[in-house]
């Protein structure tokens, strides 16, 4: 513990030139497209040249259900990468890029914390290498081409009431959620009601993160369903001839970004799809590239293991042919206490009983993860104030469940604080124990897939499905989309759809309110609750206190 | 003449590493922030260190009124930079960045043509170094903060009917010109009618291009008037505490971009404000930096000399303390013929009379430019099909006017085709003839400034001004904005407001329909005609044929 803020620690870091970080992974200088001296993209040509190499070990970091107490999943991902490097392993990490919009709402970066951070954190939290801007442009080009097509005569017969493609902006702007466009007369087109989502919610983002190369990217972009005709026939981006120009806009963004941790471990930071209506993982290309270049690749999935890890396994790994060798389930004593019923204001006092009660949440995630055939180790991300008795309670419970819980102090001590976990993870990943299988086969019906996730992961008694949703799923199966995996969109705070139901709730039914087809990304979204795809700013936005100080450094962003 | 397309020529170019281009201007490697291997930003710290150095010569390239026949102003700017380098001068060019949106509408890049191009042209026409995306973000953050302020109680008393700050997108999207936002109920705010402009029309763009450093940038951003109260008191970006975060978003974008011409002449490509509602020049910082580093700096202004050069002189030079040493007025035989009354379809036939008639347009621009106290030389940008008699006619007329018209073949032959012009420009710039003065003094009344431009530059008989506009200008003078220069917004195709009135029209009145205050940029916009700030896409957008070819090269963009 140092008393320094994350940003103080990040600024005091000695960054290696990015070419040295690349060299540590045997990436030649010519294969790095530099962005400043501390960021680079890895060239597509070089990535193509790696295909015949063997893969390293893939380690997934996931967590118990998030609480306001914080879990430190990214911090643990970064720390474990550093820890593996410190014990002599050739390691790399893969995480998501940060969304710009939320930076101006609530304070808080997305690049780890303490002595387990990725740098340059200011750039990563702002424009970085421009990937999200490219996604915004590609998305909105398609939007403009839809209205332009209707304006010039609508040869495809698009039903203006059935345009499902909205616009996006990487900003928290509630005023754009629901708008009417094309007002002002004949020259501006046909008025219709539509809206904006935040860029990370764009299907283009999910596509970029699942695409295996430029050709696959263009194919997926072309498959996007943007609207339906009066006869309910789908109209795609390919029908509008938008897929080529969108691919051009995304050509550079598709190349993974390389940066470094505070301890100069190579870090791929690439892509950042929403973890509710999308799958919430960094790009397939970044993970695949890291696996070709490093012996141990540590990555993370969004939200808790019920949503994030399940989608990592059933969408990303299934589609990309990846298989994790080990899973790290992150918990904190504070978050376990909250799962055990303690209010945030009461977290200061030792409460072993609450920790034990909260372990019900941990235990269910642990069991679920083992169901994917992968060995699991629990990381207790240490906070000041955790007591020995509380830590011991978790370790005892996890041992009963046949796994191990290891206390980690990477936030305060960097790699030195996480050596035990690093050794254990390396041993598990090398053990050959992993025998990965997704939760359900491609051939299972769409509704059965949803029910399988609900009952086996969330432990719901069953699902409730309106007739319209049932019919819609049947229509998609008839149209050839039956083999797609499911992307669940529900609250991340509980196994159930009630965000207040912490711990391990039982006796509930999962209501499926709506389904959406992401034909380009290649999944069916099942919406089970209120899902916000365009956030708003709070009463006092962080933006009000963001600025440059006298030294030219950014203040207020973190 | 080679039969190769612009893109073929650009791709065949041998690009020097950007650090070598920097080195040619004595920019140390550490002062370059690379974007790939062929683009870089010049660091603000390095620019600060140059302040005590003497300035090189400043050469403005402008043109007669544009016609569909084309003039080649950017091509001539690039060619002249190459030509000066080829005759042994240390030269650099300064031009604007391209807007992304229009690339998907009509074909045509913005990086010169033939053997006078700036490279990498694909990047320059697409995302480049992300400057325009940063401007879009900064602009829309302010927009979001306005509606958010109203949503949370409107402590500043903003009159929702008098919000003048719209949103922007770098896309041609007519559907966004006129929209109603905040529909959908209480959680989404108060519905109001507003719209989107294209990013180049943002006042933030004009501000970035006029700011002299980060502190000046933040001051100007804070001065932006976003709305008025019920009592018509202005509400600024500073009142909303948005200026600091906007500056953070623009910190990197403010640093000028360095690329190269086909002949490896250093080229600063930075900023790109609209040439109607803004001043249409590249950034002050780029021009100032180039003047510190090169002996001869060639730059250009938007549209014809009546709009572009006048604003360059009266807004950019006045505000930045710059003074041109020589002006190059570009004309083509084809454009002169069109100004002489020939239709586009009839341009193929020799027509000396039409050329002579069209010289009325050239002559008026020439006279206007001399009025600024700067020596002028005419460049005839050669096209295949121009006849000797036609060229001779122009040269004779220009000689009568006391200047020289020099035939240039840089499009076909690069620097070898423009050596005569380069020698003449260098001699004129070195001659000490220039005694620059803007058209009107700061202290002249706002309405008088408008009338001065109208009568002395456009040669109107006078101006017609509605009472409301007159009153508005008086109010701004009373509020302390009387010393600002005027930014005229009218058609670029004529001296008058009738785009069909080519040549040198007389006997017309200039109607001033509307005035707008750009308090951050520091000018008053006088709108004299229909000004489109959000273009639409054509029936068959260029986007439909843009894509990657089998070699991974971009096709259809140019």
Task: Give an account of the 3D structure.
Two copies of one chain form a homodimer. By secondary structure, chain A is an alpha/beta fold. Chain A folds into three domains: 6-129 and 253-430, Rossmann fold; 131-235, Domain 2, N(10)-formyltetrahydrofolate synthetase; 447-528, Formyltetrahydrofolate synthetase, domain 3. In chain A, 35% of the residues lie in helices and 19% in strands. The first copy, chain A, has 19 helices and 26 strands. In chain A, helix 15 (388-400) links the parallel strand 18 (376-381) and strand 19. Chains A and B meet through helix 7, strand 9, helix 10 and strand 25 of A and helix 7, strand 9, helix 10 and strand 25 of B. Chains A, B: One of its GO terms (molecular function) is ATP binding.
Largest chain-chain contact?
A-B, 74 and 74 residues
Number of helices of chain A: 19
CATH topology call of the largest domain in chain A: Rossmann fold
The averaged pLDDT of chain A comes out at: 96
Regarding quaternary structure, how should these chains be classified? homodimer
The major beta sheet of chain A can be summarized as: 12 strands, mixed
How many β-strand stretches of chain A?
26
Q: Which term fits the overall shape of chain A?
A: globular
């Amino acid at each position: 513990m140092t008393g320094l803020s994350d940003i103080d620690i990040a600024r005091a870091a000695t960054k290696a030139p990015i070419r040295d970080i690349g060299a540590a992974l045997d990436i030649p200088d010519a294969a790095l497209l530099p962005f400043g001296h501390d960021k680079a993209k890895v060239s597509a040509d070089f990535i193509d040249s790696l295909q015949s190499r063997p893969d390293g070990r893939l380690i997934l970091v996931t967590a118990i259900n998030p609480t306001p107490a914080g879990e430190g999943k990214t911090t643990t991902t970064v720390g474990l990468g550093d820890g593996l490097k410190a014990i002599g392993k050739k390691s790399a990490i893969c995480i998501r890029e940060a969304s710009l919009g939320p930076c101006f709402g609530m304070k808080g970066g997305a690049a780890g914390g303490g002595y387990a951070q990725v740098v340059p954190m200011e750039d990563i939290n702002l424009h970085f290498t421009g990937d999200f801007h490219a996604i915004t442009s590609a998305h909105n080009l398609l939007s403009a081409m839809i209205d332009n097509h209707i304006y010039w005569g609508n040869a495809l017969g698009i039903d203006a009431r059935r345009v499902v493609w909205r616009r996006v902006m990487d900003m928290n702007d509630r005023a754009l959620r629901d708008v009417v466009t094309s007002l002002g007369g004949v020259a501006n087109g046909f008025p219709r009601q539509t809206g904006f989502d935040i860029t990370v919610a764009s299907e283009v983002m999910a596509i970029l993160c699942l695409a295996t190369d430029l050709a696959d990217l263009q194919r997926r972009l072309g498959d996007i369903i943007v609207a339906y005709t009066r006869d309910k026939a789908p109209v795609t981006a390919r029908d509008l001839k938008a897929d080529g120009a969108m691919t051009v806009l995304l050509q550079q963004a598709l190349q993974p970004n390389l940066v470094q941790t505070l301890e100069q471990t190579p870090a791929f930071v690439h892509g950042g799809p929403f973890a509710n209506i999308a799958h919430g993982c960094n790009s397939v290309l970044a993970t695949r590239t890291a696996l070709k270049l490093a012996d141990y690749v540590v990555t993370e999935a969004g939200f808790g293991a019920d949503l994030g890890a399940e989608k990592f396994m059933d969408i990303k790994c299934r589609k990309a042919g990846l298989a994790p060798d080990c899973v790290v389930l992150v918990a904190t004593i504070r978050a376990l206490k909250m799962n055990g019923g303690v209010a945030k204001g009461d977290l200061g006092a030792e409460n072993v009983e609450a920790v034990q009660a909260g372990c019900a949440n941990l235990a269910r995630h642990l069991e679920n993860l083992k169901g994917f055939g992968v060995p699991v180790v629990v990381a207790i991300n240490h906070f000041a104030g955790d007591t020995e008795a509380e830590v011991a309670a978790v370790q005892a419970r996890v041992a009963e469940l046949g796994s191990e819980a290891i206390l980690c102090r990477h936030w305060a001590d960097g790699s030195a604080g996480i050596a035990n976990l690093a050794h254990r993870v390396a041993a598990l990943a090398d053990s050959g124990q992993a025998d990965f299988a997704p939760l359900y086969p491609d051939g299972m019906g769409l509704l059965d897939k949803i029910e399988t996730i609900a009952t086996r992961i969330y432990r719901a008694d069953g699902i409730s499905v309106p007739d319209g949703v049932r019919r819609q799923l049947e229509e998609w199966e008839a149209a050839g989309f039956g083999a797609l995996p499911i992307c669940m969109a529900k609250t991340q705070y509980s196994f159930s759809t009630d965000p207040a139901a912490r711990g391990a709730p039982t006796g509930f039914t999962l209501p499926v309110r709506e389904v959406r087809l992401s034909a380009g990304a290649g999944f069916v979204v099942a919406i089970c609750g209120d899902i916000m795809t365009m956030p708003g700013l709070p009463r006092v936005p962080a933006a009000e206190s963001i600025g440059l100080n006298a030294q030219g450094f950014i203040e207020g962003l973190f």
